Amino acid sequence: MKIGILTSGGDCPGLNAVIRGAVLRGVISHEAEFVGFRWGWRGVVQGDIVPLPRQEVRGLSRQGGTILHSSRTNPFEGEGGGPENIQRMLDENGIDAIIAIGGEGTLTAARRLVDEGGINVVGVPKTIDNDLAATDYSFGFDTAVEIATEAIDRLRTTADSHGRCMVVEVMGRHVGWIALHSGMAGGAHAILIPEQPMSIDEICHYVESVRDRGRAPVIVVAEGFKLTDMEAEHSHKGLDAFNRPRLGGIAELLAPMIEARTGIESRDTVLGHIQRGGAPSAYDRVLATRLGMAAVDAVKDQAWGEMVTLRGTDIARVSIREATGNLNTVPQSRYDEARVLFG
Q: Is the pTM of this model over 0.85?
C-alpha cells in the first residue's frame, strides 16, 4: 500500500504532527509506503512528489508549518487538473490513496474528486478557525487561541498605560471561535463575532462603560464581523483560488469610528498570520498525531470520502460531505455566556 499525503490551504500548527503520526502508524502497523505531494493540490496536479520514509518524520511533532509546503491550488484547474488526470498520475506512480489534510476548501475539493472521479481520498480536518462541522475541535485552533490571548494580555498593559481603547482583530473567517475563546481568556470588554452583528452604538456603549469605571477598553473582533449596517464582511484583498474573499481589516475601520464617537483615543492591532506560526501547543500535537494515525487506518479500511474527526475525546469518522456542508458556528448559548462579561 502506497499512500500520498498533502497539506493544502493555510498553514496551521500541527500539520507536521499529522504527517508524523500517519507515517509512523502506516509503517509500523500496516507496512505502508508514503510519499508527499509538495505544495498541496498543486503537487497532485503537477506530479511533484517526494518520498516520505520513516526517518524523514523524526522530531516533527514540535515543528510548526509543514515540511510538504502548502498552497491554495484548485485541483480541478490547470493542465494536470481534474479527476482523470489525477487518477492517471496516481496510477503512473503506483499511489493507492491520498490523505488530504486541510480545511473547508481543501476538503470540499477532496469530496468532489471522490464523488466525480472515484479518487481514493481520506480527509483530515485542519483549520485554526475551528469552522468545520462534524468535528468538535480541529488542531491548530488551540495554538491560535494561545497566541491571540498572549497578544491581548500584552496590549492590555499598553492600553492601561495610556488610557486607550485597543481593538484587536483575530482570524476566523466566517465564525467567531478564536475571538470568543481568546476574548474570554484575555478578559476582553466586548467580543465581536460574525454570528452576532452589532451596531457601532452598541460597541461604543461598552467602551464608554469601561471608561466610566476607570478602565482602558479592550475589544476583540473576528475578521468576519459585520456591523449591522454592513451588507458583507470587510474585504479588500481580493479572492483566493476557491473564489472566497480574503477577509481582514475590520479593526482598522472600527478604531477610528470608536474614537470619533467616544473621544477615547483608539488603536487597532491586526494579529494576522502570527496566529498560524510557531510551534503547536501540546494539545494540538496530541490531537494532530491521533488524527494522522486514524487517517491511515481509514485508508486501510478503504473509507474513501470520509474524514477522521474528534467527537468528545474519541476519534471517529464522518463523511467529508457532512463536514463541509455547514460551518461550525458559535451557538447563541456560548455567546450569551461571554456577553455577561462585556462592558
A: yes
Q: Is CATH 3.40.50.460 the classification given to domain 143-276?
A: yes
Establish whether 106 is an annotated binding residue: yes
Range(s) within the chain of domains with CATH label 3.40.50.460: 143-276
> How far is Cα 179 from Cα 171, in angstroms, rounded to an integer?
8
Instruction: Determine whether the annotation assigns residue 72 to a binding site.
Output: yes
Tens-binned pLDDT, residue by residue, of the chain (343 aa): 999 999 998 899 999 999 999 999 999 999 999 999 999 999 999 999 999 999 999 999 999 999 999 998 999 998 999 999 999 999 999 999 999 999 988 999 999 999 999 999 999 999 999 999 899 999 999 999 999 999 999 999 999 999 999 999 999 999 999 999 999 999 999 999 999 999 999 999 999 999 999 999 999 999 999 999 987 787 777 776 566 778 889 999 999 999 999 999 999 999 999 999 999 999 999 999 999 999 999 999 999 999 999 999 999 999 999 888 889 999 999 999 999 999 9
DSSP-derived secondary structure for 237-279:
S-B-TTS-B----HHHHHHHHHHHHH---EEEEE-GGGGT-SP
SS3 190: strand
For the question of residue 336 being annotated catalytic, the response is no
* Given 91, 96, 129, 131, the catalytic residue: 129
Q: Which of 246, 241, 252, 239 is nearest to 224 (CA)?
A: 246
Which residues belong to CATH 3.40.50.450 in the chain?
2-139+280-325
Whether 169 has a binding-site annotation, put simply, is: no
Q: Please state which CATH class domain 2-139+280-325 belongs to.
A: alpha beta
